[in-house]
Write the structure tokens for this entry.
Amino acid sequence: MKRLMIALTCLLAPAAATAHEIGTTEVRLTIHGDRTWSASITTGPLSLLNKLEAEAGLPPSRNLDQDALRQALDHARNALAQHIDVRFDGARSAEAVSIASLDLPADITRPSLVVISATGTVPSAATAVTWQYNLAYSTYAVVFLAAGRPPRTIWIEGDDTAGPLPLAGVMPPTHLGIVRQYLALGFLHIVPAGLDHVLFVLGIFLLTTSLRPILIQVTAFTLAHSLTLGLTMYGLVSLPPRVVEPLIAASIAYVAIENVVTARLTPWRPVVVFAFGLLHGMGFAGVLKDLQLPRGEFLPALVSFNAGIELAQLSVIGVAFLTVALWYRDKSWYRARVVVPASLLIALTGLVWTVQRTAAR
Amino acid sequence: MSVARRIAAAAVAALAATPALHAHDFWIVPSRFHPDPGTTVAIGLRTGQNFIGDAVRRSDIAIERFFVRQAGRDEPIAGIDGADPAGWLRADGDATAILVYRSRPSFIEMPPAKFEDYLRLEGLERIVDIRHQRGTSGSPGREYFSRCAKALLAGRRESEAVTRPVGLDFEIVPDADPTARAGLFHGRLFYDGEPLAGALVMAMLDGDPSARLSARSDSRGGFAFALPRPGVWLIESVHMVRTWWWFSRADWESFWASLTFEAPGRGAAGGTASRR
């Protein structure tokens, strides 16, 4: 009958039936932005020392005063480090262990506690961390702390493992990650987000179907916007957006109108494209500033962003060539039915934007 | 080799060799085993192995009974939920007092190998055999476990009360007050009010890992240890039964009995009605 009663108790009171023996051990595991981690382990000092002594086949210490206990724990810190197992993506991180504080109160109603500090480095490209500490006999809490994240508390049993806890958004990205990220941002700033830049590039493309004039214009444009992008980001030149943005719109209208007027590369066209490229570079810089470039990764981010813009521009030209010019450039009607209407449409758009952006000042 | 180096070398070896056991002993540690009358005694709870334990915080939700039997009556042990020590009391100090802790059942699930390691460690080979016979050796160990801990606070005179069960499901009951008698410890195991035969009982001396004794209870639940030295002793035993599985998510239910007390030196050899 007693067993039946116990079974019923377990069935009807699940909270009681799953209650755990929670000890005084507490862990705070912090992932820092500088690719380091730190852990503070608060636990009973004498039992900690006794566990390490038992492993070494030594009799457990008794009746140690504060200084003697601290000294004993300090001597045992290398052994203690063997029991602190922090892993990033399964690879163990070496740690340095020290005794941060020790409190042996004379008041018997207060617990004795030692705080152990462990620190280590976070490998680049780490995606997740696990925690294991196999000197705890009771249930304890691991509080996981990381910049920009709310604290997360995980309760674990003795030598169980906490995690894996994802580090996405916690760790600063690697160099490669920065390059990837800003390459993508540069590309996306043109396609699909930068219709004005796309129309300008199409304006360059529509002038002629010959490769050389296109290459000359693209090179001039690239050199120019790279120059002002860099100079603006380093704070060496500056023009307010209310000036730059209408001029960018006007540049679109200009190249498109010139496409209607002439079908060949005039001597001043590369110069004009270069000049407009300087304006577009300032426009790109405005976007990049809004993205809050990482301070330590300024140059790779800048170069990657610019490379992304180039990739996008070449993609626009490539798509336009493959879908239209490749098939129809030799047709007698190509200029009349493709170049002129498309250029007029681009010019009209550029003019409208010029008016809008000027009016918006 | 220095102490620090021995500890470091042993830690590396232990990580590879020691089976980590989830099921740990549980015992009561008062701040003093011989309190003067009227003094405050802090009551700590410990879980661990080989008489090395972590402090356990008081958890009101986990406590079924937590009281002291002294001066002929039972009093609940007061404390703060979530705190260590788990409680405190004012010692009567006249006769030996009994501290009693009974937890509510907790559920635990272990991988098969880990479960059977711990069964063998606690002398529960018969459960290993039953699992083998039932073809469930490869199944995880799912059990409810309950703590049935007692400790003795020595008073100015010994107490007959310590030789009577206090009503725990599984209980270690001394035949005589061990706080007053050096040397031999005679006791009995009771499960569900009846003597329990064939159970492994272990005795450990605080601060001396070499003083580790074991015995099996006889047909009347009796066992005896010749305690080689005075000091704080832990006597413990584990009993396991099948659950009423159709009611339970566990297959087994274990009861962890412990008794802690401070054995006196040889000069206190038995039979005295008063020690001071």
User: Anything to note?
Assistant: The longest strand of chain B covers residues 141-153. Confidence is low (pLDDT under 50) at residues 1-21, 270-276 of chain B. The two ends of chain B are 46 Å apart (CA to CA). Chain B has one domain: 22-268.
